[in-house]
Each structure stands twice: as C-alpha cells, then as structure tokens.
Design a protein that fits this description.
CATH class: Alpha Beta
Structural class: alpha/beta
CATH architecture: 3-Layer(aba) Sandwich
CATH topology: Rossmann fold
Number of helices: 10
Number of strands: 9
Distance between the termini: 18 Å
Strand order of the largest sheet: 2-1-3-4-9-8-7-5-6
Shape: globular
Radius of gyration: 18 Å
Largest sheet: 9 strands, mixed
Oligomer: single chain
C-alpha cells in the first residue's frame, strides 16, 4: 500500500506487443506529474493481452490503454476475465471505502470493452477508420466535468478507431452518478447516430474514445507515415491532411489536450487520496 508521500500508478497495457506512441506519452505525463506534485510517484506496466497480467489492489491509480483489434472478439478470453476481475475488485473497494477511492482512466480500446462488458452502449464497426486530429464536442455535463471544464468546445483530440459506441444507456450511466461527456463531430449530411467519445461512469471511473496521452511529436510521426497519410487523404482530402499537421503546432488543440486531461485526472486522484488521509 502506498505511503502518505508516495503514489503508485498501474498502467494496464492492452497494445498486445504492437508498437505504439501511447506508452511513451503516458511515461512522459507521469514523470511530469511527479515533478509537479512534489511527491514520489512510481508506475508499473502490466501486459494484459499477451501475458494476462493485471495489477492488484495496492495501487492508487489505474490507467488502461488503447490497443489494436476488435473489442468484440476478446469477449470471454482469459485476459478479459482477469481484466474485469480487477475492475470489479476496484468497484467493490470504492464502495466499501468511499473516502479512499481508487481512480481509473480507460483509453480507446479499454473504453470500448468496458462499455461492451457493462452494457453502457452498443459497440459496432465503423463504416471506415477514423484517424487523425479531430474535434470532439462537449455535452452539457462535459462542460462542467473537472477534467474538461477549462477546455474549448469543440476540444481537439487524437482519434484512431475502427469501432464506435452508440445507443448509449443513459439510465445505467446516470444511476451511478455518471454522465456522457463528449460525442463525435456533428455531420448533418450523414444519417448516423453520433458516437460517444467520453463517459464518466462514476466519480472514480472515466473513459474516453480518443487518446488524451497523444502528444504533437508522436502524432506527427504517425501522420508522416505513408500508410497514415494515405488513410487521412482518402477519407478527408489532402487539404485536411495538411491542416491536421498544422493543428499539431497550435497550443489550443492537441498540445492543450495533452497537457490537461491526464495531468488533471492524476491530480484529481491525488487530491482525493490526500483528502482521505486528512480525515
């Protein structure tokens, strides 16, 4: 168990060994957080999908990553069984210790399987891949959520997905004090329901379809890859591709999302923990 001047973070790696920028982004953010909070911060990675590794309950914070492949095909697998065993244990802990809640951040693939498993919405394959620097739009609740309230509407984020969450079960979300926070860009010419892009499930659990850990450097590397360049141009056109590259230099877009969402999540978790120690 963490001491009063030490916070421990578990990073649940769902990338299944696939090369990615997500882990680098999380490392950078955690190191910056340690400097900012003036406390000892340690973190440990768990290879969930390749080795069926999961953390125990001794951590203060849990961050579960994005990853490749279908969020439908892994239903019933060993690694999912262990993953959701941990989620259930955290939920039970939080119910039994409301003043010492452990906080969980679910990113992209983790967000998708969490929504599917608990019935928060319907998961389906998109007609085409969504990839690039995209605007995401706040709901009323999104304007007031602590993680996002100072960010613009739309907020700009890195999107990379073949699947989506629609037909959100608002009754189930709201019964735990949660809220739908973001939805995808409004496209009036397309007769399709707008997908959920972020949901607060309760005070301690929050998930998002986009990648808040993505920084300008990592996204630039992706966009300059020939396959990613072709994907964006095919879907959005060459002008939009160059606009995405320009957006990476804008301090009010990706750079702001990167420097705000995960750090604020960590600071919120730390604040709750310090408050419990003072009681």
């Amino acid at each position: 168990m963490s001491s009063e001047n030490h916070i421990r973070i578990a990073i649940l790696d769902l990338y299944e060994g696939v090369a990615n920028e997500g882990m680098r982004g999380l490392r950078q953010l955690i190191k910056k957080f340690e400097v900012d909070c003036h406390m000892k911060v340690t973190y440990e990675f768990f290879d969930v999908r390749q080795k069926s590794e999961v953390a125990d309950l001794s951590f203060d914070v849990y961050i579960s990553s994005g990853g490749p492949g279908s969020p439908l095909d892994s239903a019933g697998s060993l690694w999912e069984s262990k993953f959701f065993g941990l989620m259930e244990n955290i939920k039970i802990h939080n119910q039994q210790h409301p003043d010492q809640k452990k906080h969980v951040l679910l990113i992209c693939h983790s967000f998708q399987i969490f929504c599917r498993y608990y019935g928060y919405g319907i998961i389906s394959k998109r007609k085409s891949t969504s990839f690039g620097v995209m605007p995401v739009h706040k709901t009323f609740e999104g304007h007031h959520d602590l993680l996002f309230q100072s960010l613009g509407d739309p907020m700009w984020a890195v999107d990379s997905r073949d699947y989506q969450i629609t037909q959100v079960n608002m009754e189930k979300i709201e019964e735990n004090g949660g809220a739908l926070l973001f939805i995808e860009k409004y496209r009036p010419h397309i007769d399709l329901e707008r997908a959920a892009m972020a949901i607060r499930f309760d005070e301690a659990f929050v998930g998002m379809q986009f990648h808040p850990e993505a920084d300008a450097l990592g996204m630039r590397m992706y966009l300059l890859r020939e396959d990613k360049k072709e994907l964006v141009i095919e879907k959005h056109g060459e002008r939009k591709y160059w606009e995405m590259l320009d957006h990476l230099n804008d301090p009010d877009k990706i750079m702001l999302t990167y420097s705000t969402v995960v750090p604020r999540f960590l600071m919120t978790a730390l604040g709750h923990r310090l408050s419990s120690l003072a009681i």
